[in-house]
Design a protein that fits this description.
Elements (H helix, E strand, L loop, with lengths): L9 H54 L2 H8 L4 H4 L5 E4 L5 E4 L4 E4 L5 E4 L2 E4 L8 E6 L5 E4 L5 E4 L3 E6 L7 E12 L8 E5 L3 E5 L3 E6 L5 E8 L2 E6 L8 E6 L3 E6 L4 E6 L12 E8 H12 L2 E4 L8 E7 L4 H12 L3 E4 L4 E4 L1
Parallel strand pairs: 3-7, 10-11, 20-23
Antiparallel strand pairs: 1-2, 1-6, 3-4, 4-5, 6-9, 7-8, 8-10, 9-10, 10-13, 11-12, 12-15, 13-14, 14-17, 15-16, 17-18, 19-21, 22-23
InterPro entries: FecR, FecR_C, Ferrdict_sens_TM
Protein name: Iron dicitrate transport regulator FecR
Keywords: Membrane, Transmembrane, Transmembrane helix
């Protein structure tokens, strides 16, 4: 038997409506509290994740080596040295020394004495690491002999930061541009070449070339002798992958900065080391690659007014002491194209 609400007295009807309204209000209030509780947990979760990311980045900052931190805090604008006419050695006390052509910057075993320009420079001993910097403008090259006996050749438009002596468990230098390293063997102190974009080369004793110009789309390492390992820490908020590749003689590792991938190839790497001897050697290379090397060394721009065969390759050599007029004549004889040089704009038009 079901109750008949129609026959309820007015007082009972009013009481029933009040209780129903109270029940509905209670349910709405409980739902609102539940939503607020869920929102509070969501905000807390976001804050926790944000805190975790902050801690992660702080940890990554702590993992940056001292020489990388020094390079980060002591950036040099390209116009400051790339457009200069002379090689500069900047000491840890910010004193600048002009390096003469064909001069080797040589350190003694202690790292406190430097032979340069047939003179000896003495540096004050310090418990803390002291970093010196070599700046190489366009059209110039430089050679160093570091405190551990490692030999370094720097190409045009390059910068090398290094400690005056290697007192720690590892030997680390920081490179922008292109350098050839003949590393003194020391199994107890592995040698690292650090570069921008989280790229590094690890070696015990070997001869290799690293090209890491900031304007280039790729970073490359070529091995002539020994064995090296290249590593690249991929960028991204949640990306912790590190790409690695081990090179044997005759191998090149190329890092594509945009795609964040490393590819290795096997080829004749000898021509990539020729510039340390004073000449550029090209062996079956496309014209675009030849012009790219000359663009950087002579600080000129090539303007192509004709369509070149991308499959055609060229071989030959340029003496790096040659002036541009002689370089242009060599290019004309090799390619059969007309090269017109404008000295004011430093542009070479190819017709």
């Amino acid at each position: 038997m079901y109750p008949n609400f129609k026959i309820l007295p007015k007082e009972d009807k009013a009481d029933l409506k009040a209780r129903i309204a109270e029940s509905i209000a209670f349910e709405k209030q409980r739902t609102r509290r539940k939503r607020l509780r869920t929102l509070s947990w969501s905000v807390a979760a976001v804050l926790f994740i944000g805190l975790g990311i902050t801690i992660l980045f702080r940890q990554e900052e702590k993992e940056i080596s001292p020489i990388e931190q020094f390079a980060k805090n002591n950036t040099t604008e390209g116009s400051s040295f790339e457009k200069s006419d002379e090689v500069k050695l900047v000491l840890s006390n910010q004193e600048s020394v002009t390096v003469n052509d064909s001069t080797t910057i040589a350190y003694d075993a202690s790292g406190n004495k430097i032979n340069v320009n047939n003179k000896q420079i003495k540096q004050t001993k310090s418990v803390d690491a002291q970093y010196n910097t070599v700046l190489v403008p366009y059209g110039k090259r430089a050679q160093l002999s570091l405190a551990d006996g490692t030999l370094v050749w720097l190409n045009s438009g390059s910068k090398l930061i290094y400690p005056t002596t290697f007192n720690k468990e590892t030997r680390e230098v920081f490179l922008e541009g292109e350098g050839i390293f003949d590393v003194a063997h020391n199994a107890a102190k592995p040698f690292f070449v650090k570069a921008a974009n989280n790229y590094s080369v690890r070696v015990l004793g070997t001869l290799f070339n690293v090209s890491c110009y900031s304007a280039d789309a790729k970073v490359s390492t070529a091995l002539l002798r020994g064995k090296v390992q290249v590593a690249y820490a991929k960028k991204g908020f949640f990306n912790t992958d590190t790409l690695q590749a081990v090179l044997k003689p005759g191998m090149i590792a190329s890092l594509d900065k945009k795609q964040q991938i490393i590819k290795t190839t096997v080829q004749n790497v000898e021509p990539l080391f020729s510039w340390r001897k004073g000449y550029y050697e090209f062996s079956e290379q496309r014209l675009s690659l030849v012009l790219e090397k000359l663009t950087r060394y002579y600080n000129v721009t090539f303007v192509m007014n004709r369509k070149a065969n991308q499959k055609e390759t060229y071989s030959g050599a340029f003496t790096l002491n040659d002036d541009l007029d002689k370089v242009v004549k060599t290019l004309e004889a090799t390619t059969g194209f007309e090269f017109v040089y404008n000295a004011q704009t430093r542009a070479i038009t190819i017709n």
